[in-house]
Amino acid sequence: MSAVANLWTILTVSAGVFFYFAGTVGLLRFPDTYTRLHALTKADNLGVGLVVLGLLPRSGSVLGGLKLLSIWLLVLLSASTVSQLIARAARRREPRA
Amino acid sequence: MNEFLLVAAAFVLAMVALGLTRVLRGPGDADRMMAPLLLGTGGIGALLLLGAATGADGVIDVALILAVLAAFAAIAFVKASEETDETGSEDNA
Amino acid sequence: MSTPTLFGLSAAVLVGLGLYGVIAHPQPLRKIVAFNVIGSGVFLLLGAIARRGAAAGMGGDPVPQALLITGIVVAFSATALAIALLLRLFGETGSVTLSSDAPAKADGDKAHG
Amino acid sequence: MIGIVDTGLALLILGLAVWAIVARDTFAAVVGFVAYGLLLTLIWVRLHAVDVALTEGAIGGGLAGALLIGAAARLRSTEAAARSERPGVPLRILAAVLAAGVTAALAVCVLTLPVPAPTLAHETAAHVAATGVGNPITAVLLAFRAMDTLLEAIVLLFALVGVWSLAPDRAWGGRPGPRQRADPNGTLAYVARVLPPIGIIVGAYIFWVGADYPGGKFQGATILAAMWLLVMMAGLADAPPIRKTWLRLGLVAGPLVFIAIGFAGVATAGAFLAYPEGYAKPLILVIEFALMPSLALTLGLLLVGAPQRQEER
After folding, report:
1. Which range marks the domain in which residue C37 is found?
2. Beta carbons of A85 and B78 less than 8 Å apart
3. Owning domain of residue B7
4. Contacts of residue C18 in chain D, CB cutoff 8 Å?
5. Is the N or the C terminus of chain B less surrounded, counting Cβ atoms within 10 Å?
Protein backbone atom coordinates (compact mmCIF):
# COMPACT_ATOMS: atom_id res chain seq x y z
CA MET A 1 0.00 0.00 0.00
CA SER A 2 2.64 2.48 0.99
CA ALA A 3 4.68 1.39 -2.03
CA VAL A 4 1.76 2.36 -4.26
CA ALA A 5 1.39 5.67 -2.44
CA ASN A 6 5.09 6.35 -2.79
CA LEU A 7 4.98 5.55 -6.49
CA TRP A 8 2.02 7.93 -6.88
CA THR A 9 3.89 10.67 -5.04
CA ILE A 10 7.02 10.18 -7.13
CA LEU A 11 5.10 10.21 -10.40
CA THR A 12 2.91 13.23 -9.74
CA VAL A 13 5.59 15.32 -8.03
CA SER A 14 7.94 14.60 -10.92
CA ALA A 15 5.26 15.69 -13.36
CA GLY A 16 4.67 18.82 -11.27
CA VAL A 17 8.35 19.64 -11.22
CA PHE A 18 8.40 19.22 -14.99
CA PHE A 19 5.69 21.87 -15.33
CA TYR A 20 7.67 24.25 -13.14
CA PHE A 21 10.55 23.63 -15.52
CA ALA A 22 8.33 24.28 -18.53
CA GLY A 23 7.01 27.47 -16.96
CA THR A 24 10.51 28.77 -16.32
CA VAL A 25 11.62 27.93 -19.85
CA GLY A 26 8.63 29.87 -21.12
CA LEU A 27 9.47 32.78 -18.82
CA LEU A 28 13.03 32.89 -20.13
CA ARG A 29 12.28 32.35 -23.81
CA PHE A 30 9.01 34.11 -24.59
CA PRO A 31 9.30 37.48 -26.29
CA ASP A 32 6.80 39.81 -24.55
CA THR A 33 5.02 40.49 -21.26
CA TYR A 34 1.76 38.78 -22.17
CA THR A 35 3.25 35.49 -23.29
CA ARG A 36 5.54 35.43 -20.25
CA LEU A 37 2.56 36.04 -17.99
CA HIS A 38 0.83 33.20 -19.78
CA ALA A 39 3.75 30.81 -19.26
CA LEU A 40 4.05 31.70 -15.59
CA THR A 41 0.42 31.52 -14.56
CA LYS A 42 -0.58 28.45 -16.56
CA ALA A 43 2.36 26.09 -16.22
CA ASP A 44 3.31 26.91 -12.63
CA ASN A 45 -0.24 26.43 -11.44
CA LEU A 46 -0.29 22.99 -12.95
CA GLY A 47 2.98 22.44 -11.11
CA VAL A 48 1.44 23.43 -7.77
CA GLY A 49 -1.59 21.25 -8.49
CA LEU A 50 0.45 18.17 -9.25
CA VAL A 51 2.67 18.70 -6.21
CA VAL A 52 -0.48 19.00 -4.08
CA LEU A 53 -1.93 15.82 -5.59
CA GLY A 54 1.34 14.02 -5.04
CA LEU A 55 1.52 15.03 -1.39
CA LEU A 56 -2.12 14.13 -0.68
CA PRO A 57 -1.42 10.54 0.47
CA ARG A 58 1.17 11.89 2.92
CA SER A 59 -1.08 14.54 4.45
CA GLY A 60 -2.11 12.14 7.20
CA SER A 61 -5.60 13.45 7.90
CA VAL A 62 -8.73 14.46 6.02
CA LEU A 63 -8.36 18.04 7.26
CA GLY A 64 -4.76 18.14 6.06
CA GLY A 65 -5.83 16.87 2.64
CA LEU A 66 -8.62 19.44 2.39
CA LYS A 67 -6.21 22.20 3.31
CA LEU A 68 -3.81 21.04 0.60
CA LEU A 69 -6.56 21.03 -2.00
CA SER A 70 -7.82 24.45 -0.94
CA ILE A 71 -4.27 25.81 -1.28
CA TRP A 72 -4.34 24.74 -4.89
CA LEU A 73 -7.78 26.25 -5.50
CA LEU A 74 -6.71 29.52 -3.90
CA VAL A 75 -3.54 29.68 -5.99
CA LEU A 76 -5.63 29.02 -9.11
CA LEU A 77 -8.08 31.77 -8.18
CA SER A 78 -5.46 34.38 -7.45
CA ALA A 79 -3.23 33.52 -10.41
CA SER A 80 -6.07 33.59 -12.90
CA THR A 81 -7.44 36.92 -11.72
CA VAL A 82 -4.10 38.58 -11.08
CA SER A 83 -2.78 37.63 -14.52
CA GLN A 84 -5.81 39.38 -16.02
CA LEU A 85 -5.28 42.48 -13.92
CA ILE A 86 -1.56 42.70 -14.58
CA ALA A 87 -2.03 42.16 -18.31
CA ARG A 88 -4.62 44.93 -18.35
CA ALA A 89 -2.30 47.29 -16.46
CA ALA A 90 0.46 46.53 -18.97
CA ARG A 91 -1.91 47.06 -21.89
CA ARG A 92 -3.08 50.43 -20.57
CA ARG A 93 0.45 51.74 -20.66
CA GLU A 94 1.35 50.36 -24.01
CA PRO A 95 0.16 53.05 -26.47
CA ARG A 96 2.16 55.65 -24.59
CA ALA A 97 5.43 53.78 -24.56
CA MET B 1 11.43 9.11 -0.27
CA ASN B 2 12.27 12.23 1.73
CA GLU B 3 15.44 12.52 -0.29
CA PHE B 4 13.33 12.61 -3.45
CA LEU B 5 11.06 15.33 -2.05
CA LEU B 6 14.09 17.40 -1.08
CA VAL B 7 15.55 17.08 -4.58
CA ALA B 8 12.19 18.20 -5.97
CA ALA B 9 12.11 21.17 -3.56
CA ALA B 10 15.65 22.17 -4.53
CA PHE B 11 14.75 21.91 -8.21
CA VAL B 12 11.63 24.07 -7.82
CA LEU B 13 13.69 26.64 -5.90
CA ALA B 14 16.25 26.67 -8.69
CA MET B 15 13.46 27.28 -11.20
CA VAL B 16 12.17 30.15 -9.06
CA ALA B 17 15.66 31.64 -8.90
CA LEU B 18 16.05 31.39 -12.68
CA GLY B 19 12.63 32.93 -13.24
CA LEU B 20 13.46 35.78 -10.85
CA THR B 21 16.59 36.67 -12.81
CA ARG B 22 14.34 37.17 -15.82
CA VAL B 23 11.30 38.97 -14.41
CA LEU B 24 13.11 41.39 -12.11
CA ARG B 25 14.98 42.84 -15.08
CA GLY B 26 11.70 44.09 -16.50
CA PRO B 27 11.49 45.98 -18.82
CA GLY B 28 8.04 47.09 -17.64
CA ASP B 29 6.54 47.20 -14.16
CA ALA B 30 4.12 44.46 -15.22
CA ASP B 31 7.02 42.09 -15.88
CA ARG B 32 8.45 42.82 -12.47
CA MET B 33 5.12 42.17 -10.80
CA MET B 34 5.50 38.57 -11.92
CA ALA B 35 8.14 38.10 -9.20
CA PRO B 36 5.58 37.86 -6.37
CA LEU B 37 3.46 35.62 -8.59
CA LEU B 38 6.43 33.38 -9.20
CA LEU B 39 7.04 33.15 -5.46
CA GLY B 40 3.33 32.52 -4.98
CA THR B 41 3.37 29.37 -7.08
CA GLY B 42 7.00 28.24 -6.87
CA GLY B 43 7.43 29.30 -3.27
CA ILE B 44 4.32 27.43 -2.18
CA GLY B 45 5.40 24.34 -4.12
CA ALA B 46 8.86 24.36 -2.59
CA LEU B 47 7.41 25.04 0.86
CA LEU B 48 5.01 22.09 0.65
CA LEU B 49 7.75 19.75 -0.60
CA LEU B 50 10.13 20.96 2.10
CA GLY B 51 7.47 20.57 4.78
CA ALA B 52 6.61 17.05 3.62
CA ALA B 53 10.27 16.06 3.53
CA THR B 54 11.23 17.38 6.95
CA GLY B 55 7.92 16.51 8.63
CA ALA B 56 7.62 19.94 10.24
CA ASP B 57 3.99 20.51 11.26
CA GLY B 58 2.12 23.67 10.56
CA VAL B 59 3.85 24.11 7.21
CA ILE B 60 0.57 23.57 5.37
CA ASP B 61 -0.89 26.51 7.30
CA VAL B 62 2.01 28.70 6.18
CA ALA B 63 1.31 27.71 2.57
CA LEU B 64 -2.37 28.42 3.14
CA ILE B 65 -1.61 31.98 4.29
CA LEU B 66 0.67 32.55 1.32
CA ALA B 67 -2.05 31.26 -1.01
CA VAL B 68 -4.72 33.53 0.48
CA LEU B 69 -2.48 36.58 0.23
CA ALA B 70 -0.80 35.68 -3.08
CA ALA B 71 -2.96 38.12 -5.04
CA PHE B 72 -2.66 40.95 -2.57
CA ALA B 73 0.55 42.71 -3.62
CA ALA B 74 -0.36 42.49 -7.29
CA ILE B 75 -3.78 44.03 -6.67
CA ALA B 76 -2.18 46.90 -4.76
CA PHE B 77 0.10 47.48 -7.75
CA VAL B 78 -2.80 47.47 -10.20
CA LYS B 79 -4.77 49.97 -8.11
CA ALA B 80 -1.81 52.30 -7.58
CA SER B 81 -0.85 52.29 -11.25
CA GLU B 82 -4.48 52.97 -12.24
CA GLU B 83 -4.45 55.95 -9.91
CA THR B 84 -1.24 57.44 -11.27
CA ASP B 85 -2.37 56.84 -14.87
CA GLU B 86 -5.58 58.73 -14.19
CA THR B 87 -4.03 61.72 -12.51
CA GLY B 88 -1.86 62.00 -15.59
CA SER B 89 1.51 61.87 -13.88
CA GLU B 90 3.76 60.96 -16.76
CA ASP B 91 5.85 57.89 -16.28
CA ASN B 92 8.10 56.87 -19.08
CA ALA B 93 8.47 53.29 -17.94
CA MET C 1 28.04 24.14 8.21
CA SER C 2 24.94 23.76 10.37
CA THR C 3 21.67 25.40 9.36
CA PRO C 4 21.67 28.04 12.15
CA THR C 5 25.26 29.03 11.41
CA LEU C 6 24.55 29.30 7.69
CA PHE C 7 21.55 31.56 8.19
CA GLY C 8 23.27 33.45 10.98
CA LEU C 9 26.11 34.35 8.62
CA SER C 10 23.58 35.28 5.92
CA ALA C 11 21.94 37.53 8.50
CA ALA C 12 25.27 39.27 9.13
CA VAL C 13 25.60 39.96 5.39
CA LEU C 14 22.01 41.23 5.22
CA VAL C 15 22.63 43.73 8.02
CA GLY C 16 25.72 45.01 6.19
CA LEU C 17 23.89 45.28 2.87
CA GLY C 18 21.01 47.14 4.45
CA LEU C 19 23.36 49.53 6.26
CA TYR C 20 25.10 50.36 2.99
CA GLY C 21 21.73 50.97 1.34
CA VAL C 22 20.52 53.29 4.09
CA ILE C 23 23.61 55.45 3.75
CA ALA C 24 24.18 55.35 0.00
CA HIS C 25 20.67 55.84 -1.36
CA PRO C 26 19.34 59.37 -1.59
CA GLN C 27 15.76 58.25 -2.14
CA PRO C 28 13.64 57.85 1.00
CA LEU C 29 11.73 54.81 -0.29
CA ARG C 30 15.03 53.05 -0.97
CA LYS C 31 16.16 53.94 2.54
CA ILE C 32 12.96 52.42 3.94
CA VAL C 33 13.55 49.21 1.98
CA ALA C 34 17.19 49.12 3.10
CA PHE C 35 16.12 49.67 6.68
CA ASN C 36 13.78 46.74 6.40
CA VAL C 37 16.65 44.63 5.07
CA ILE C 38 18.63 45.53 8.20
CA GLY C 39 15.60 44.67 10.30
CA SER C 40 15.08 41.29 8.69
CA GLY C 41 18.80 40.58 9.07
CA VAL C 42 18.53 41.20 12.80
CA PHE C 43 15.42 39.04 12.96
CA LEU C 44 17.17 36.26 11.07
CA LEU C 45 20.11 36.44 13.48
CA LEU C 46 17.74 36.14 16.41
CA GLY C 47 15.97 33.27 14.63
CA ALA C 48 19.27 31.42 14.16
CA ILE C 49 20.06 31.91 17.85
CA ALA C 50 16.58 30.65 18.76
CA ARG C 51 17.13 27.57 16.61
CA ARG C 52 20.40 26.81 18.41
CA GLY C 53 18.44 26.82 21.65
CA ALA C 54 16.25 23.92 20.57
CA ALA C 55 15.51 21.77 23.60
CA ALA C 56 12.74 20.08 25.56
CA GLY C 57 11.11 18.80 22.38
CA MET C 58 10.78 22.28 20.88
CA GLY C 59 12.29 23.17 17.52
CA GLY C 60 13.72 26.37 18.92
CA ASP C 61 13.84 28.55 21.99
CA PRO C 62 10.26 29.89 22.18
CA VAL C 63 11.16 33.15 23.94
CA PRO C 64 13.19 34.72 21.12
CA GLN C 65 10.68 33.31 18.62
CA ALA C 66 7.87 35.14 20.38
CA LEU C 67 10.02 38.29 20.41
CA LEU C 68 10.45 37.87 16.67
CA ILE C 69 6.70 37.90 16.11
CA THR C 70 6.41 41.08 18.14
CA GLY C 71 9.37 42.55 16.28
CA ILE C 72 8.00 41.82 12.83
CA VAL C 73 4.67 43.47 13.65
CA VAL C 74 6.32 46.54 15.19
CA ALA C 75 8.72 46.87 12.23
CA PHE C 76 5.73 46.78 9.93
CA SER C 77 3.95 49.54 11.82
CA ALA C 78 7.08 51.71 11.65
CA THR C 79 7.32 51.08 7.90
CA ALA C 80 3.69 52.02 7.43
CA LEU C 81 4.23 55.27 9.33
CA ALA C 82 7.36 56.07 7.29
CA ILE C 83 5.54 55.48 4.02
CA ALA C 84 2.58 57.58 5.10
CA LEU C 85 5.01 60.43 5.87
CA LEU C 86 6.66 59.98 2.50
CA LEU C 87 3.40 59.99 0.55
CA ARG C 88 2.28 63.09 2.46
CA LEU C 89 5.55 64.84 1.59
CA PHE C 90 5.04 63.87 -2.04
CA GLY C 91 1.44 65.11 -2.00
CA GLU C 92 2.55 68.42 -0.49
CA THR C 93 5.64 69.25 -2.53
CA GLY C 94 5.52 66.91 -5.52
CA SER C 95 8.95 65.58 -4.66
CA VAL C 96 10.42 63.37 -1.98
CA THR C 97 13.84 64.89 -1.61
CA LEU C 98 15.51 64.86 1.79
CA SER C 99 18.22 67.22 0.65
CA SER C 100 18.37 70.44 2.67
CA ASP C 101 19.49 72.62 -0.25
CA ALA C 102 16.52 71.70 -2.42
CA PRO C 103 14.29 74.62 -3.46
CA ALA C 104 11.98 75.22 -0.53
CA LYS C 105 9.10 76.46 -2.62
CA ALA C 106 6.41 74.73 -0.63
CA ASP C 107 7.24 76.57 2.59
CA GLY C 108 4.94 79.48 1.94
CA ASP C 109 1.67 77.65 1.44
CA LYS C 110 1.98 74.66 3.67
CA ALA C 111 -0.80 75.79 5.96
CA HIS C 112 -3.66 74.93 3.65
CA GLY C 113 -2.15 71.77 2.18
CA MET D 1 20.63 17.11 0.42
CA ILE D 2 18.99 19.37 2.99
CA GLY D 3 22.29 21.22 3.10
CA ILE D 4 21.95 22.00 -0.60
CA VAL D 5 18.42 23.31 -0.09
CA ASP D 6 19.60 25.50 2.81
CA THR D 7 22.54 26.84 0.84
CA GLY D 8 20.28 27.53 -2.12
CA LEU D 9 17.84 29.41 0.11
CA ALA D 10 20.67 31.45 1.65
CA LEU D 11 22.13 32.33 -1.77
CA LEU D 12 18.72 33.27 -3.12
CA ILE D 13 17.90 35.50 -0.16
CA LEU D 14 21.28 37.21 -0.40
CA GLY D 15 20.85 37.68 -4.13
CA LEU D 16 17.44 39.27 -3.64
CA ALA D 17 18.78 41.52 -0.87
CA VAL D 18 21.61 42.68 -3.15
CA TRP D 19 19.03 43.36 -5.85
CA ALA D 20 16.82 45.30 -3.44
CA ILE D 21 19.80 47.48 -2.51
CA VAL D 22 21.62 48.02 -5.81
CA ALA D 23 18.91 47.88 -8.50
CA ARG D 24 18.78 51.14 -10.47
CA ASP D 25 15.02 51.25 -10.68
CA THR D 26 13.18 51.81 -7.39
CA PHE D 27 10.15 49.81 -8.41
CA ALA D 28 12.36 46.87 -9.37
CA ALA D 29 14.12 47.07 -6.01
CA VAL D 30 10.83 47.13 -4.11
CA VAL D 31 9.44 44.15 -6.00
CA GLY D 32 12.68 42.31 -5.28
CA PHE D 33 12.20 43.10 -1.61
CA VAL D 34 8.68 41.67 -1.65
CA ALA D 35 9.98 38.46 -3.20
CA TYR D 36 12.65 38.52 -0.48
CA GLY D 37 9.97 38.68 2.21
CA LEU D 38 8.12 35.72 0.71
CA LEU D 39 11.32 33.71 0.53
CA LEU D 40 12.14 34.55 4.13
CA THR D 41 9.02 32.58 5.04
CA LEU D 42 10.70 29.42 3.75
CA ILE D 43 13.81 30.17 5.81
CA TRP D 44 11.73 30.51 8.98
CA VAL D 45 10.32 27.06 8.29
CA ARG D 46 13.86 25.75 7.94
CA LEU D 47 14.72 27.34 11.31
CA HIS D 48 11.76 25.48 12.88
CA ALA D 49 9.99 28.75 13.64
CA VAL D 50 6.62 28.05 12.05
CA ASP D 51 4.88 30.73 14.11
CA VAL D 52 7.35 33.28 12.81
CA ALA D 53 6.90 31.92 9.28
CA LEU D 54 3.15 32.50 9.57
CA THR D 55 3.74 36.09 10.71
CA GLU D 56 6.31 36.76 8.01
CA GLY D 57 4.07 35.27 5.33
CA ALA D 58 1.09 37.35 6.42
CA ILE D 59 2.91 40.62 7.07
CA GLY D 60 6.02 40.47 4.90
CA GLY D 61 4.36 38.78 1.95
CA GLY D 62 0.95 40.38 2.21
CA LEU D 63 0.57 43.73 3.93
CA ALA D 64 4.12 45.10 3.67
CA GLY D 65 4.32 44.00 0.04
CA ALA D 66 1.13 45.84 -0.84
CA LEU D 67 2.26 48.91 1.11
CA LEU D 68 5.69 49.17 -0.52
CA ILE D 69 4.56 48.34 -4.05
CA GLY D 70 1.71 50.84 -3.82
CA ALA D 71 4.12 53.54 -2.64
CA ALA D 72 6.69 52.71 -5.34
CA ALA D 73 4.07 52.89 -8.08
CA ARG D 74 2.84 56.27 -6.80
CA LEU D 75 6.32 57.75 -6.42
CA ARG D 76 7.53 56.76 -9.88
CA SER D 77 7.64 60.35 -11.09
CA THR D 78 10.21 61.31 -8.45
CA GLU D 79 12.70 58.73 -9.70
CA ALA D 80 14.75 60.89 -12.06
CA ALA D 81 15.16 63.77 -9.60
CA ALA D 82 16.40 61.48 -6.85
CA ARG D 83 19.07 59.91 -9.03
CA SER D 84 20.89 63.21 -9.33
CA GLU D 85 21.24 63.39 -5.56
CA ARG D 86 23.29 60.23 -5.38
CA PRO D 87 26.17 60.73 -2.95
CA GLY D 88 29.70 60.83 -4.31
CA VAL D 89 32.08 57.89 -4.60
CA PRO D 90 34.07 58.66 -1.42
CA LEU D 91 30.94 58.54 0.73
CA ARG D 92 29.80 55.32 -0.90
CA ILE D 93 33.19 53.70 -0.35
CA LEU D 94 33.07 54.80 3.27
CA ALA D 95 29.57 53.33 3.62
CA ALA D 96 30.75 50.07 2.07
CA VAL D 97 33.70 49.88 4.46
CA LEU D 98 31.46 50.56 7.44
CA ALA D 99 28.91 47.98 6.27
CA ALA D 100 31.63 45.39 5.70
CA GLY D 101 32.96 46.07 9.19
CA VAL D 102 29.55 45.56 10.77
CA THR D 103 29.06 42.36 8.78
CA ALA D 104 32.46 41.04 9.83
CA ALA D 105 31.78 41.82 13.49
CA LEU D 106 28.41 40.10 13.36
CA ALA D 107 29.89 37.10 11.55
CA VAL D 108 32.51 36.73 14.28
CA CYS D 109 29.73 36.84 16.86
CA VAL D 110 27.77 34.15 14.99
CA LEU D 111 30.83 31.90 14.77
CA THR D 112 31.69 32.32 18.45
CA LEU D 113 28.22 31.83 19.91
CA PRO D 114 28.45 29.89 23.17
CA VAL D 115 28.20 26.08 23.10
CA PRO D 116 25.92 24.68 24.43
CA ALA D 117 23.52 27.42 23.43
CA PRO D 118 21.69 29.09 26.30
CA THR D 119 17.98 28.41 26.09
CA LEU D 120 14.79 29.13 27.95
CA ALA D 121 13.04 26.16 26.33
CA HIS D 122 13.29 24.07 29.50
CA GLU D 123 11.77 26.79 31.67
CA THR D 124 9.04 27.38 29.15
CA ALA D 125 8.30 23.68 28.93
CA ALA D 126 8.16 23.44 32.71
CA HIS D 127 5.65 26.26 33.08
CA VAL D 128 3.60 25.99 29.92
CA ALA D 129 1.19 23.54 31.54
CA ALA D 130 0.20 26.15 34.14
CA THR D 131 -1.14 28.42 31.40
CA GLY D 132 -3.31 25.72 29.84
CA VAL D 133 -2.28 26.56 26.28
CA GLY D 134 -0.43 24.01 24.17
CA ASN D 135 1.60 26.33 21.96
CA PRO D 136 4.65 27.53 23.94
CA ILE D 137 4.90 30.68 21.79
CA THR D 138 1.35 31.69 22.70
CA ALA D 139 2.23 31.04 26.34
CA VAL D 140 5.26 33.33 26.04
CA LEU D 141 3.31 36.03 24.19
CA LEU D 142 0.32 36.12 26.51
CA ALA D 143 1.57 34.88 29.87
CA PHE D 144 5.33 34.99 30.44
CA ARG D 145 5.97 38.11 28.37
CA ALA D 146 2.45 39.51 28.19
CA MET D 147 3.82 43.01 28.80
CA ASP D 148 5.60 42.93 25.43
CA THR D 149 2.41 42.01 23.66
CA LEU D 150 0.42 44.72 25.41
CA LEU D 151 3.01 47.35 24.55
CA GLU D 152 3.12 46.09 20.99
CA ALA D 153 -0.62 46.53 20.59
CA ILE D 154 -0.21 50.07 21.93
CA VAL D 155 2.71 50.79 19.60
CA LEU D 156 0.48 49.83 16.69
CA LEU D 157 -2.14 52.29 17.91
CA PHE D 158 0.50 55.03 18.24
CA ALA D 159 1.67 54.34 14.71
CA LEU D 160 -1.90 54.74 13.52
CA VAL D 161 -2.26 58.01 15.45
CA GLY D 162 0.97 59.11 13.76
CA VAL D 163 -0.39 58.25 10.33
CA TRP D 164 -3.68 60.02 11.00
CA SER D 165 -1.95 63.12 12.27
CA LEU D 166 -0.47 63.59 8.81
CA ALA D 167 -3.90 64.58 7.54
CA PRO D 168 -4.29 68.12 6.22
CA ASP D 169 -6.56 70.19 8.48
CA ARG D 170 -9.49 70.27 6.09
CA ALA D 171 -9.54 66.44 5.82
CA TRP D 172 -9.31 65.75 9.54
CA GLY D 173 -11.96 63.28 10.63
CA GLY D 174 -12.70 62.35 7.02
CA ARG D 175 -12.17 59.19 5.05
CA PRO D 176 -8.62 57.93 4.47
CA GLY D 177 -7.22 57.01 1.09
CA PRO D 178 -8.38 57.93 -2.38
CA ARG D 179 -11.91 57.18 -3.50
CA GLN D 180 -11.94 53.89 -5.40
CA ARG D 181 -14.00 53.63 -8.51
CA ALA D 182 -15.88 50.34 -8.51
CA ASP D 183 -16.38 48.28 -11.63
CA PRO D 184 -19.03 45.86 -10.42
CA ASN D 185 -18.40 43.40 -13.24
CA GLY D 186 -14.61 43.68 -13.27
CA THR D 187 -12.09 41.02 -12.40
CA LEU D 188 -11.04 42.87 -9.27
CA ALA D 189 -14.59 43.02 -7.94
CA TYR D 190 -14.86 39.31 -8.63
CA VAL D 191 -11.79 38.48 -6.48
CA ALA D 192 -12.99 40.89 -3.82
CA ARG D 193 -16.24 38.97 -3.62
CA VAL D 194 -14.86 35.43 -3.75
CA LEU D 195 -11.68 35.71 -1.69
CA PRO D 196 -12.76 37.50 1.54
CA PRO D 197 -15.15 34.78 2.79
CA ILE D 198 -12.41 32.19 2.32
CA GLY D 199 -9.85 34.55 3.84
CA ILE D 200 -12.01 35.18 6.88
CA ILE D 201 -12.34 31.45 7.48
CA VAL D 202 -8.59 30.99 7.11
CA GLY D 203 -7.94 33.94 9.43
CA ALA D 204 -10.30 32.60 12.08
CA TYR D 205 -8.77 29.15 11.73
CA ILE D 206 -5.20 30.44 12.14
CA PHE D 207 -6.36 32.43 15.17
CA TRP D 208 -8.13 29.45 16.69
CA VAL D 209 -5.36 26.88 16.31
CA GLY D 210 -2.93 29.38 17.84
CA ALA D 211 -3.71 28.15 21.34
CA ASP D 212 -2.20 24.74 20.69
CA TYR D 213 -0.41 24.83 17.35
CA PRO D 214 1.47 27.45 15.35
CA GLY D 215 -0.81 30.41 14.71
CA GLY D 216 -2.42 33.15 16.72
CA LYS D 217 -4.07 36.51 16.78
CA PHE D 218 -1.43 38.53 14.90
CA GLN D 219 -1.44 36.22 11.93
CA GLY D 220 -5.22 35.89 11.95
CA ALA D 221 -5.72 39.63 12.32
CA THR D 222 -3.34 40.31 9.43
CA ILE D 223 -5.35 38.09 7.11
CA LEU D 224 -8.60 39.76 8.18
CA ALA D 225 -7.05 43.18 7.59
CA ALA D 226 -5.89 42.10 4.14
CA MET D 227 -9.37 40.93 3.24
CA TRP D 228 -10.89 44.21 4.39
CA LEU D 229 -8.37 46.12 2.30
CA LEU D 230 -9.18 43.97 -0.70
CA VAL D 231 -12.85 44.90 -0.44
CA MET D 232 -11.88 48.57 -0.12
CA MET D 233 -9.47 48.47 -3.06
CA ALA D 234 -12.13 46.92 -5.26
CA GLY D 235 -14.42 49.79 -4.36
CA LEU D 236 -17.07 47.50 -2.87
CA ALA D 237 -16.91 49.36 0.45
CA ASP D 238 -15.41 52.72 1.30
CA ALA D 239 -12.99 53.32 4.15
CA PRO D 240 -14.84 54.62 7.22
CA PRO D 241 -14.37 58.26 8.26
CA ILE D 242 -11.90 58.25 11.13
CA ARG D 243 -14.06 60.42 13.37
CA LYS D 244 -16.62 57.64 13.82
CA THR D 245 -16.98 56.66 17.45
CA TRP D 246 -17.50 52.96 16.72
CA LEU D 247 -14.25 52.91 14.79
CA ARG D 248 -12.26 54.47 17.60
CA LEU D 249 -13.90 52.24 20.18
CA GLY D 250 -13.07 49.22 18.06
CA LEU D 251 -9.45 50.31 17.82
CA VAL D 252 -8.93 50.67 21.56
CA ALA D 253 -11.23 47.88 22.77
CA GLY D 254 -8.58 45.14 22.59
CA PRO D 255 -5.81 47.02 24.43
CA LEU D 256 -8.36 48.27 27.00
CA VAL D 257 -9.52 44.74 27.80
CA PHE D 258 -5.87 43.69 28.02
CA ILE D 259 -5.07 46.52 30.44
CA ALA D 260 -8.20 45.85 32.50
CA ILE D 261 -7.25 42.20 32.90
CA GLY D 262 -3.73 43.34 33.74
CA PHE D 263 -5.00 45.53 36.59
CA ALA D 264 -7.39 42.83 37.73
CA GLY D 265 -4.26 40.70 38.10
CA VAL D 266 -2.92 43.19 40.66
CA ALA D 267 -5.97 42.59 42.83
CA THR D 268 -6.37 38.85 42.35
CA ALA D 269 -2.87 37.53 41.76
CA GLY D 270 -0.62 40.19 43.20
CA ALA D 271 1.03 41.53 40.05
CA PHE D 272 0.19 43.47 36.91
CA LEU D 273 -0.76 41.02 34.15
CA ALA D 274 -0.60 38.03 36.49
CA TYR D 275 -3.39 35.54 36.14
CA PRO D 276 -5.06 33.90 39.18
CA GLU D 277 -4.42 30.18 39.50
CA GLY D 278 -6.55 28.10 37.15
CA TYR D 279 -7.91 31.08 35.22
CA ALA D 280 -4.95 31.55 32.90
CA LYS D 281 -6.40 29.89 29.84
CA PRO D 282 -9.84 31.55 29.89
CA LEU D 283 -8.25 34.94 30.48
CA ILE D 284 -5.77 34.39 27.65
CA LEU D 285 -8.66 33.48 25.37
CA VAL D 286 -10.58 36.61 26.39
CA ILE D 287 -7.55 38.78 25.66
CA GLU D 288 -6.98 37.12 22.30
CA PHE D 289 -10.64 37.45 21.32
CA ALA D 290 -10.68 41.12 22.28
CA LEU D 291 -7.33 41.89 20.69
CA MET D 292 -7.87 40.29 17.32
CA PRO D 293 -10.55 42.64 15.89
CA SER D 294 -8.69 45.68 17.21
CA LEU D 295 -5.46 44.48 15.62
CA ALA D 296 -7.22 43.79 12.32
CA LEU D 297 -8.74 47.29 12.31
CA THR D 298 -5.43 48.92 13.24
CA LEU D 299 -3.39 47.04 10.64
CA GLY D 300 -5.96 47.71 7.93
CA LEU D 301 -6.16 51.44 8.67
CA LEU D 302 -2.36 51.72 8.89
CA LEU D 303 -2.24 50.61 5.28
CA VAL D 304 -5.01 52.89 4.04
CA GLY D 305 -3.08 55.90 5.27
CA ALA D 306 -3.94 59.42 6.38
CA PRO D 307 -7.43 60.90 5.94
CA GLN D 308 -7.67 62.70 2.60
CA ARG D 309 -11.33 63.41 1.98
CA GLN D 310 -13.69 65.55 3.98
CA GLU D 311 -17.02 63.88 4.38
CA GLU D 312 -19.46 64.90 1.69
CA ARG D 313 -22.97 65.69 2.79
Report:
1. 3-98
2. yes
3. 2-86
4. 17, 21
5. N
Report pLDDT digits (tens) over D239-290: 888 888 898 898 999 899 988 888 888 888 778 888 887 788 888 888 888 8
CB nearest D191 (choices: A70, A81, A88): A81
Residues from chain A that touch B79, judged by Cβ atoms under 8 A, are none
Contacts of D68 (CB under 8 A, 6+ apart): C29, C32, C33, C79, C83, D30, D33, D34
CA distance A78 to chain D (A): 8
C90 inside 8 A of chain D by CB: yes
What's the domain count of chain A? 1
User: Which range marks the domain in which residue A19 is found?
Assistant: 2-96
Per the structure, how many domains does chain C have? 1
- pLDDT > 50? residue C112: no
Instruction: Mean pLDDT check: name the lowest of B70-74, C33-37, C95-99, D33-37.
Output: C95-99
Q: Which residues of D touch A81 (CB under 8 A)?
A: 187-188, 190-191
pLDDT tens digits, B29-42: 888 888 888 888 88
ipTM: 0.88
**Any domain includes C59:** yes
The distance of A35 to chain D (nearest Cα, Å) reads 20
CB pair distance less than 8 Å for D148 and C86: no
* Chain C residues close to D220, C-beta within 8 Å: none
